[in-house]
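Morning F.,

Quick status update on the modeling queue. The single chain you submitted on Monday has been processed. Sequence for confirmation:
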Amino acid sequence: MKRRALLQSLAAVVTARPFGVRLFAQAPITAAETATLKAIAEVVLPSALDRAARDRVVNAFVAWVRGYREGADRGHGYGSSSLSQPTGPSPAKSYPGQLAALDGLATAGGAKSFAALSVEDRRFVIERVLNAPPVVQRLPARPTGVNVIADFMGFYFTSGDAWDLAYRARIGRDRCRTLDGSDRAPAPLGPGTQDQGPGTV
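Structure tokens below.
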């Protein structure tokens, strides 16, 4: 199938199929779903990150999802004397259906899978998914389950590693540091550091 025909088919399918929340009783992230996340990462993460760096972001996101505990005590908020509300339902319950929907969109357009699409065609699908109801107005500070693509992007772009990369400096946001050296500007990232990606997110 020619690329123009594929894009026309994808556009029609994305318009016809809502990319909404689909709940599953259990939501482990499978190897196939991780592969789809890696295909998403190649499109939505900074181009300065190489494949190994993107894979580390995906693995960190998957680890966060697997480690999420519903009803967990969140302790006190910063500067607050009252306890925060316990954690709610896992946002990952909707991820299997949403990731499967991406594969479904690709196969309906004539491709073997979402990961098999070219980067440009994946970008085409992702842009339309993010702009389809419910439209993503802003990236969530923490995953919500409404849109796995937005959750993944928010997970990275609110991380300390994303801040370091954006400012090309070792800011270390959200990392525990002493006051030693706090009067000095953050050290610049070393040569090639931007290509290594985050060690921890």
